[in-house]
Amino acid sequence: MIDLQTMRQMAAAQPVVVVDHSGEPMDRLGLPDALPVPGLLVSTVKEAVKQVHAGRLIADLDRDSLWAVAGFVLDITVLDALGEGAYSAADLIRAVTAAGFDWKPTIL
């Protein structure tokens, strides 16, 4: 879970917070110096992806049309718009969009 209070504490030390999909700080080595906010750090999908409904396989998905989210880039403005609490990665993506921000991807 990605805890917003922890991320706000991180933002007090650095204006831009970079965390992985579980909310842990990411090593910035190899990342561009300037990252867009709010940002999604994404990479290509290397494994097969299937769509399952009610326990049944219903489709093979084209992994070349998908991105794997490796991390998030946020600042205090975005964090304050989200309120309090903890989010899963999927919930954080939806919450940032619902708060009126547009995600900007950075391909790793």
Order of helices and strands: EHEEEEEHEHE
Oligomer: single chain
Q: Number of helix segments? A: 3
The coarse overall form would be globular
Helix- and strand-based class?
Answer: alpha+beta
Strand order of the largest sheet: 2-6-3-8
Q: Report the strand count.
A: 8
User: Which value, in Å, is the CA radius of gyration?
Assistant: 15 Å
Q: What percent of the residues sit in helical stretches (DSSP H or I)?
A: 25-40%
Please outline the major beta sheet. Answer: 4 strands, mixed
Account of the protein in words:
With 108 residues, the chain is an alpha+beta fold. The protein is built from 3 helices and 8 strands; from the N terminus they run E-H-E-E-E-E-E-H-E-H-E. The strands form 3 sheets. A 4-stranded mixed beta sheet has the order 2-6-3-8. A two-stranded antiparallel ribbon has the order 1-7. A hairpin with a 2-residue loop joins strand 4 and strand 5. Helix 1 runs antiparallel to helix 2. The radius of gyration is 15 Å and the shape is globular. 16% of the residues are buried. The mean pLDDT is 90.
SSE layout:
Blueprint: E1 2-3, H1 4-13, E2 16-20, E3 39-44, E4 49-53, E5 56-61, E6 67-75, H2 76-82, E7 86-87, H3 89-98, E8 104-107
Parallel strand pairs: 3-8
Antiparallel strand pairs: 1-7, 2-6, 3-6, 4-5
Helix pairs in contact: 1-2
